């Protein structure tokens, strides 16, 4: 597995603002993923971040709302832009350990007021 | 697209009993099926997985079975303990643009009563 950290662990933000979430892993990984977990719900994939290329977004998620950076093999950021209360969720990054396994970061609990 | 259905949504057992959670998937090309345990306020934790070339895998008190023909797989927990109480998610892999991504079931909230 890998040691994965996320910052911040939680935040309370006002609507209309943006928050950038950081994901750091202790080893080089090719694929990183960003998920959203709404209260009491399952995990929904937002996008896949492959180092050196543009992120690939899932249906219902767009780059303008959730821009992602992947500057190197150990780090990624997800920005939640122009937030509304509907964006209140837990945001989790995960890393792929080839060929299939995924391990999750501790998550960022976002509340938008 | 790929869909993963998970049942039951809640499960309540007495300590020492067995618990079974079932999932079905739609994409016949899926070949990797992990199970995650998520305790309250914690991250999902990979507890066991199975690949399509295997029918059953066991790790102490937990086991997973896979029926590729019927496209379903199950998690079995024996001799349940209160610390098994959590939400369990199944997932199925799908190939997308040269990499594998996971589609998750809706989750099962397991309560083990002493």
Compact summary:
The complex is a heterodimer of chains A (113) and B (114). Chain A is an all-beta fold.
Can you put this structure into words, describing what you see?
The complex is a heterodimer of chains A (113) and B (114). Chain A is mostly beta strands. In chain A, 0% of the residues lie in helices and 53% in strands. Chain A has no helices and 11 strands. In chain A, strands 2, 4, 5, 6, 9, 10 and 11 form a 7-stranded mixed beta sheet that branches. Chain B is mostly beta strands and 114 residues long. Chain B contains no helices and 11 strands. Chain B starts with a strand and ends with a strand. The model of chain B has no long low-confidence stretch (mean pLDDT 95). The interface between A and B is medium-sized, with 23 and 24 residues.
Set down the secondary structure blueprint.
The complex is a heterodimer of chains A (113) and B (114).
Chain A: E1 4-7, E2 10-13, E3 19-25, E4 31-37, E5 44-50, E6 56-57, E7 68-72, E8 75-80, E9 89-97, E10 101-104, E11 108-112
Chain B: E1 4-7, E2 10-14, E3 19-25, E4 32-38, E5 45-51, E6 56-59, E7 62-67, E8 72-77, E9 86-96, E10 99-104, E11 108-113
Parallel strand pairs in B: 2-11
Antiparallel strand pairs in B: 1-3, 3-8, 4-5, 4-9, 6-7, 7-8, 9-10, 9-11
| Main β sheet profile of chain B | 6 strands, mixed
Structural class of chain A: mainly beta
What is the element string of chain A, with H for helices and E for strands?
A: EEEEEEEEEEE
Structural class call of chain B reads: mainly beta
Tally of DSSP helical segments of chain A: 0
Mean pLDDT of chain A equals: 95
Terminal-residue CA separation of chain B: 41 Å
Q: What portion of the residues of chain B fall into strands of 2 or more residues?
A: over 45%
Mean pLDDT of chain B: 95
Low-pLDDT windows of residues of chain A: none
What's the count of strands of chain A? 11
Oligomer designation: heterodimer
Number of helices of chain B: 0
- Please tell me how large the radius of gyration of chain A is: 13 Å
Tally of extended strands of chain B?
11
End-to-end Cα distance of chain A, whole Å, is 36 Å
- How do the SSEs of chain B run, as a string of H and E? EEEEEEEEEEE
Low-confidence stretches of chain B: none
User: Level of helix content of chain B?
Assistant: under 10%
């Amino acid at each position: 597995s890998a040691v994965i950290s996320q910052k911040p662990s939680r935040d309370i933000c006002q609507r209309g603002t943006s928050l950038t979430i950081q994901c750091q892993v202790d080893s080089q990984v090719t694929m990183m993923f960003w998920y959203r977990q709404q209260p009491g719900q399952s995990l929904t994939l937002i996008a896949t971040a492959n180092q050196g290329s543009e992120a690939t977004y899932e249906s219902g998620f767009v780059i303008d709302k959730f821009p992602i950076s992947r500057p190197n093999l150990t780090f990624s950021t997800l920005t939640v832009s122009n937030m509304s209360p509907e964006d209140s969720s837990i945001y989790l990054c995960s890393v792929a350990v080839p060929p299939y396994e995924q391990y999750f970061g501790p998550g960022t609990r976002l509340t938008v007021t | 697209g790929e869909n993963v259905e998970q049942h039951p949504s809640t499960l309540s057992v007495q300590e020492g009993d067995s618990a079974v959670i079932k999932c079905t998937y739609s994409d016949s090309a899926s070949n990797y099926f992990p199970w995650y345990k998520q305790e309250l306020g914690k991250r999902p934790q990979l507890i066991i997985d199975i690949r399509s070339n295997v029918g059953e895998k066991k790790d102490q008190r937990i086991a997973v079975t896979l029926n590729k023909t019927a496209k379903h797989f199950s998690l079995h927990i024996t001799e349940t303990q209160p610390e098994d109480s959590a939400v369990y998610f199944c997932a199925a892999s799908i190939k997308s643009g040269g990499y594998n991504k996971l589609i998750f079931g809706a989750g099962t909230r397991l309560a083990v009563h002493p």
